[in-house]
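Q: How would the structure tokens look for this protein?
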Amino acid sequence: MAQIVLFHSVYGLRSAVHAAADRLRAAGHTVHTPDLFDGRTFDDVEAGMAYKEEVGSDELLRRAVGAAAPLLTPVNGEAPVAEGLVYAGFSLGGSLAQNLALADEQACGLLLLHGTSDLREDAATSIPVQLHVAEPDPFETEDWLNAWYLRMRKAGADVEIHRYRGAGHLFTDPDLADYDAEAAERTWAVALDFLAELDG
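A: Here is the predicted structure in token form.
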């Protein structure tokens, strides 16, 4: 089964993230859910974005790297926890997961829920990538996604994009107005198949 590090959205490490992790664990995966916001959670996106800006993108990336490093680095001569991680994340967490996965030569896969990140021109990876995104999505526009897909393919990734017409941006979170139960269930069914294939 996969070893997954699952990064939260700009809303923080809320119940929806724990529920998602439990769903993945029920399928046999080991899931780590780092808290990059020091225990803070938010009920509206403006407050979450304000805190993100306060912390800064560089610091959030540093925290994400720090959370994943113990899973990869031998401690006291012992073997690392995971031979290769699957990086995953919601929205902002997806952006962070992408950055870490493309920098980790041992990464096994990348599961993006509602969010992507830019790529360096010299990015190179052969990992399988699966993206689930609303259609349309104000944060992941059509032009952006087309460019992102082409750049990921150029980097060598095996990319799938699954779009959900009419869903809100964070449609897998049942505590938000974005929630779309049907789209969320479809997402998890496809994502679990993706993870099972990585393990196979």
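Residues 3-199 form a domain with the Rossmann fold fold (CATH 3.40.50.1820).

The chain is about 40% helix and 20% strand.

Upvote if useful.
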